[in-house]
Amino acid sequence: MVGAGPAAAQEPAKLDRAAEIFAPCIKLAAESKAPAWTCTAAGLTVTRRDANGKATQSLTPVAPLTSGTDSASALADDYDSWCENEAVCHRNPFGNKFLEETKGNAAYGSGPTLIGSFDIVIRTNLNGRQAQWRETFIWDSGPGVSFEAVAANCWEAIDFWPDLSCGNHYGGSRRIASGVAARWDTGTLYGNRLVNAADYYGSVVGVFTTDDEPEMPRFISPLETTRFQCPGTQNCVFY
User: Fold this and answer.
1) CB-based burial of residue 198 (10 Å sphere; 0-12 exposed, 13-18 middle, 19+ buried)?
2) Is 8 helix (H, G, I), strand (E, B) or coil?
3) Less crowded by CB within 10 Å, the N or C end of the chain?
């Protein structure tokens, strides 16, 4: 008999970690009888269909049981092992003030049942007054996941008012699943030139379906980078 591959062997442990990290979110999902839900550091995102059959989403903030301080070095590509026990982590590889990586774990399910999980990483490279993003999605457990659309959104932070959009940058669509198709990198997404002297940040958003429920879209609530500053006419830098 052919033995299970590394990904299959690690799948139960990764699902158990997701259940632990997002226990409060999963409990709320069960209590609300949500037909389709996603848990991230932002909280519980529920998908329901309205009277016309249109999928709608609602977000309820729920704090995860852990909050990331894991700042492991980035000497190698460690995206699938870094920050596996936290809901979200941030780091500046090599102490580079022009480079930042944010990783968020995500879990999804239906009613009281946790079905699967995956990782999201957004890497921000500041090039003068422009942010350049790359998004990475890694399958962890459960059925295959098809991302119908993902994007990197740019935001200018505004005190006491809603933040101002500085661009939405489409990342594409792809399916990830156990095995050779477990990871997807979007490639570089080029942001707009940032004119204002202000603080900014990026976020990952998206819509996905799963192999077991291809007709039900699920939503990724924004996974936000740390803020960076673009002072005067100088180059942008992370704090």
Assistant:
1) middle
2) helix
3) N
CA-nearest of 182, 140, 184 to 9 is 140
Q: How many whole angstroms separate alpha carbon 110 and alpha carbon 30?
A: 8
Is residue 22 within 8 A of residue 87, CB to CB? The reply is: yes
CA–CA distance, 134 with 207 (Å, rounded to integer): 17
- What does the angle CA 9 – CA 13 – CA 18 come to, to the nearest 5 degrees? 135
Find the DSSP H helices in 108-229: none
Q: What is the pTM of this model?
A: 0.91
- Tally of CA atoms within 13 A in the half-sphere of 50 that contains its CB: 6
Confidence at residue 214, expressed as pLDDT on a 0 to 100 scale: 94
Burial class from Cβ neighbours inside 10 Å (0-12, 13-18, 19+) for residue 59 reads middle
Q: Which two tokens stand for residue 58?
A: 């609602």
Q: Is residue 237 predicted with pLDDT exceeding 60? A: yes
Question: How far is Cα 235 from Cα 229, in angstroms, rounded to an integer?
Answer: 9
Q: Comparing 67 with 206, which gets the higher pLDDT?
A: 206
- Please give the single-letter amino acid code of residue 156: E
